[in-house]
Design goal:
Helices cover 40% and strands 16% of the residues. By secondary structure, it is an alpha/beta fold. It binds NADP nicotinamide-adenine-dinucleotide phosphate.
Length: 236
């Protein structure tokens, strides 16, 4: 049996949910390849950081190749990097569209291709993407078209990839958060966001990290979109 640690790649790892996911995997002794544009070198020798724009295929290439050089394998990819731009549909600019597509779509596509190609060689692996509950259930008054377009696309691609790679030992899942306390939402917005939720709370980063660890350790779950949203997906 191999004694080398399992290796996870986490995108959007500099803050918020991504930083929490890095910590959660470290508690399980995974080696981590952590990436974002502004990520700093880590003092932890089992955390390799790679800085770059995740929508750029060259960044995806560096993350996977530097991770393999340092740790030798890729067991799990967590596609967490994402941005949200909320505006009335007709007010979105070309720049808004390009920015959201770059991170939420291209940032999923290129690195997932490269990670799955590595996982195929070892006939095992897990890809889990952080999407958004609002992609499945829109809220009146919350502007969500670009989130629906991109995160909804990743939810659909999750099922598609799960089936395409099931026979090759690679599982593909997603976690769809509701509203999470992260730098994405300034504290002054929290009360209003809480009021929108069936459980009347917004969740902590750990709720998402725990869901990802659960899926990572669940060998019979693939093609699942796990909503961690205090009931938003169920209705309101
Ligand atoms: N917070 C919520 O309520 C909520 C709800 C539903 C879904 N989500 C999803 O959860 C994920 C994490 O969100 P969060 O709340 O933790 O957001 P956050 O605090 O704003 O963090 C976003 C992360 O993505 C990275 N990032 C942004 N643009 C990037 C780019 N072009 N290239 C590489 N990295 C980039 C950021 O790092 P750099 O700036 O260093 O690049 C940062 O690490 C996202 O996919 C988001 O859509 C969040």
């Amino acid at each position: 049996m191999s004694t080398s640690p399992k290796v996870v790649v986490v995108t959007g790892a500099s803050q918020g949910i991504g930083a929490g996911i890095v910590q959660a995997f470290r508690t399980l002794d995974y080696a981590v390849v952590a990436t974002s544009r502004s990520i700093e070198p880590s003092n932890d020798s089992n955390v390799l950081t790679v800085a770059g724009d995740i929508g750029d295929p060259a960044t995806a290439q560096r993350v996977i190749s530097e991770g393999l050089t340092r740790f030798g394998r890729i067991d799990t990819l967590v596609n967490n990097a994402g941005i949200y731009v909320g505006k009335p549909f007709t007010e979105y600019t070309r720049g808004d569209y390009a920015a959201v597509m770059n991170v939420n779509m291209a940032g999923f596509f290129y690195i997932t291709q490269l990670a799955i190609a590595e996982m195929e060689k070892q006939a095992s692996g897990h890809v889990v993407s952080v999407t958004a509950s609002i992609a499945d259930t829109a809220y009146s008054g919350v502007y969500s078209v670009l989130a629906a377009l991109t995160k909804g696309g990743v939810n659909a691609a999750t099922k598609s990839l799960a089936i395409e790679y099931a026979r090759k030992g690679i599982r593909v899942n997603a976690v769809a958060p509701g509203i999470i306390k992260s730098p994405m939402h300034p504290p002054e917005t929290h009360d209003a966001l809480r009021a929108l939720n069936p459980l009347k709370r917004i969740s902590e980063v750990n709720d998402i990290a725990d869901a990802i660890l659960y899926l990572d350790a669940a060998p019979f779950i693939t093609g699942e979109i796990l909503h961690v949203d205090g009931g938003q997906y169920a209705g309101r």
